[in-house]
Design goal:
Elements (H helix, E strand, L loop, with lengths): L6 E4 L3 H12 L4 E4 L8 H4 L20 H6 L9 H14 L6 E2 L4 E6 L4 E5 L4 E4 L1 E4 L21 E4 L14 E5 L3 H13 L2 E6 L6 E2 L7 H9 L1 H9 L19 H14 L3 H4 L8 H18 L3 H6 L14 E2 L2 H4 L5 E5 L5 E4 L3 E4 L4 E3 L2 E4 L7 H5 L3 E2 L6 H4 L18 E3 L12 H22 L1 E5 L1 H16 L30 H13 L5 E5 H6 L1
Parallel strand pairs: 1-2, 1-7, 2-3, 4-18, 7-19, 8-17, 9-10, 9-17, 10-13, 11-12
Antiparallel strand pairs: 4-5, 5-6, 14-15, 15-16, 20-21
The protein binds flavin-adenine dinucleotide (FAD) and NADP nicotinamide-adenine-dinucleotide phosphate (NAP).
The site of NADP nicotinamide-adenine-dinucleotide phosphate has 27 residues, from helix 5.
Length: 537
Amino acid sequence: MANDPDVVVIGAGFAGLYTIHRLRERGLSVHGLEAAEGVGGTWYWNRYPGARCDSESYYYCYAFSSELEQEWDWSERYPGQAEILSYLEHVADRFDLRRDISFSTTVVSAAHDGDRWVIDTEDGGRWTCRWLVTAVGCLSSANVPDIPGLESFAGEWHHTGQWPHEGVDVAGRRVGVVGTGSTGIQAIPVLAESAGHLTVFQRTANFSIPARNAALAPEEAAGYKADYAAIRELQQASTNGHPFVVSDVDTLALPDDERRALLERAWERGGLRFRAAVRDVLTDPAVNEETSDFLRVKIHETVDDAVTAEALTPRDHPFATKRPPIDTGYFETYNRANVSLVDVRADPIAAITPDGVRLTSGAEHPLDVLVFATGFDALSGPLLRLGIRGTGGQSLADAWAEGATTYLGLGVAGFPDLFTITGPGSPSVLTNMPTSIEQHVDWIADLLGHLRDHDLEAEPTPEAQARWAEHVREAADATLLPQAASSWYLGANVPGKPRVFLPYAGGFARYREMCDAEAAAGYPGFALRARHERASA
Ligand code: FAD
Ligand code: NAP
């Protein structure tokens, strides 16, 4: 089977690594193709200062192996990039995954020839396989804004998702950061500590909750290890794949002082748990406005200069309708003498010059280093970059011209035997992703076992896909999420990208139940065809 395994998996992050392991267990031959020089995906690429997890370490990890759970020790509540990368390297070694992965191998096209997938790589290689599984991630396609003059910049510029391995020396230099999403909010406080001057170019002010990171005390770590069965059960039953019980308190019915005390306690606890402390925050506009106001006041209490505080205060979207960042000293950073904020919504960036950034008003900001914390062409972007062609040579780009649609986020009508881990329409980025990834991979592994045992090929039916697209839209519309006009969930951060709410907002537990029902019913949303029928057609 030289270059012709049963399954080719593209990507070797959390998703690709587990897919290789799981499919091997199923007795399938499998090979991974990975653009990077090593495993890790997100945690291989995002090496910017301050990069760390927002999920807590005890559950931002695999659940499939209790030995792995017990043997790995996390050092902090939120592990940093290097520690998560070490964890994934350990997983690759422990389960002997590297022998089936080609690194430094970028897929440039994948076409179904009527029987098999034919995959071409940038270095001239060719692979064929019966089943193609994409594990290319939701946030792996860097979004570098197309600003005139970037090529003329005399300093150095970097996107945070392609950060140099050797690091970037910012000591004493004039540094600019474009972007105040989760990435910018993590990087800005760390860059400010050593930059000579740091200028933040902000287009949309963002809410952020203090992370309250700390070392994991040995007894706390031991407690999690002893409790894993219950933790995993909670995750499986949850909306977001996090092991938090969402509050059942009707906050609006509480007297003012109790409501305030509840929010204060959640603020002190910090992290993404803040969201779970406020019931209905994403569905009830009044609850959300109360919570948003609480957070706005916190910004004004933290930032000394009133004008800067107001510029940092989000007023154009409800809390958590954009992915809420968590931070360590973000708003406090604006009290430093070497940090300034520039509002590029009021005065947009017009050009990059050899010296720095020029705004529309003509104002110049001289820089030595420019950092783009400008996010990703999320969910659909990495899939479209694969150059996928399905039945009759139809391209995925054409199929998705009006916006990305899938069935369950796991497959696309017109593209037989293609399986998309955390594709558009999966709960993916609205959840703790390792939890969704494991569920997707297990489900795909079961389906592939069924297809192999019965010599079938599978492709979502157009009807099932249309119903799912409608359900994804309804699930988003039942929340406040679509109200954030500048959200990458909607594709709004990439000029020209169709505005479709991409992830499934109906909750992880509900999604898992629907996937289980699909499998139990014999996969009615898929056309299952005997392979000899196609071969003789
Ligand atoms: P990735 O880790 O993105 O891996 C995809 C791999 O596919 C990459 O290695 C890439 O090189 C490869 N690839 C893509 N295209 C090609 C191609 N054409 N040819 C060959 N290889 C290709 N999620 C959480 O749940 N909690 C968090 O706290 C959290 N923190 C995050 C922090 C940052 C900075 C970022 C960017 C994301 C974070 N995420 C978080 C989301 C994170 O992406 C997922 O948790 C998870 O790591 C995704 O794993 P994956 O394997 O699906 O994709
Ligand atoms: P992001 O949320 O898309 O933020 C990008 C920022 O850049 C936004 O402030 C955006 O402004 C701005 N921007 C984009 N193009 C611009 C332009 N042309 N001019 C000026 N400003 C521009 O990207 P991100 O911060 O990298 O985060 C993406 C996702 O990755 C997160 O939401 C999260 O899911 C994940 N992530 C997680 C963690 C973590 O968990 N620890 C850390 C980092 C990232 P607008 O808002 O106006 O578009």
